UniProtKB/TrEMBL annotation:
This is Uncharacterized protein. The keyword Oxidoreductase applies. It comes from Aspergillus pseudoustus. InterPro entries: NAD(P)-bd_dom_sf, SDR_fam. The keyword Glycoprotein does not apply. It comes from the Eukaryota.
Length: 236
């Protein structure tokens, strides 16, 4: 399960109506069908857009408000990491443009249009990503006086999802090597955390959460003996 899908399912359990944005209409439709079968009483609308195009994001938000209702929660989950194992300065400019367009510009477009769509008295913005996204999302909270906006950042470590597989150009051997020896997070781990952050009392705000595998000691440092040391069948 992907992170966005897992978060959508978690929110559905809380009775939240959803407006889902993604580039792939087929994937959006599949997620919607799965959710509606389990929770027929909630509304799920899908909008296939590339968030790098602000005109499409604007149109999707304008459609979502009358179809789903006021936007009380915004999850900025879209993200790209391309070109591994090449280092940044070794990359061609095109993947850099794509990553910037999705990770920075796309996030700002979504935050901008959502925060201006019939502003309600309470809003929660969650950004499951890193520094540039946190700065731009937090700026929105600073600039909307008179509203109970909560800006929260979820900073995940290594997660076993399509994100990392695409990062290494879908080379299974590379992803197996990357996760060797330890147990990464799964999408449901992050979805549980998002649900927890959103369901705290409105007078409190969890500003940021670092959610990583225990074996991930730093950004690129891992305890590769974790699995062997924690085997359930190991004789003590």
């Amino acid at each position: 399960m992907r992170i966005g899908e897992a978060i959508a399912v978690a929110l559905e359990k809380e009775g939240v109506n959803l407006a889902l944005l993604s580039r792939s209409k087929d994937k959006l439709d599949a997620v919607r069908e799965t959710i509606v079968k389990q929770y027929p009483d909630v509304s799920v609308k899908v909008y296939p857009v590339d968030i790098q195009d602000y005109t499409l994001v604007k149109k999707a938000v304008e459609s979502a408000v009358p179809e789903v209702g006021e936007i009380d929660i915004l999850i900025n989950n879209a993200g790209l990491a391309l070109g591994a194992p090449a280092r940044f300065w070794e990359l061609p400019v095109e993947p850099i443009r794509q990553m910037n367009g999705t990770n920075v510009s796309g996030l700002m477009y979504a935050t901008y249009f959502a925060s201006n769509a019939r502003p309600s008295t309470a809003k929660s913005f969650i950004t499951p990503t890193r520094r540039a996204s946190r700065a731009s999302a937090t700026a929105c909270g600073w600039r909307r006086p008179g509203q109970n906006i909560r800006v929260m950042v979820l900073r995940p470590g290594c997660v076993a999802t399509h994100f990392h597989l695409r990062r290494v150009k879908y080379e299974q051997e590379a992803i197996d090597e990357f996760f060797y020896g330890y147990e990464p997070l799964v999408a449901e781990d992050l979805a549980d955390t998002v649900r927890f952050m959103l369901t705290r009392t409105e007078r409190t705000s969890i500003k940021a959460v670092d959610w990583v595998p225990t074996a991930q000691r730093a950004l690129t440092r891992f305890d590769r003996e974790w699995n062997e040391r924690n085997r359930s069948d190991r004789t003590m």
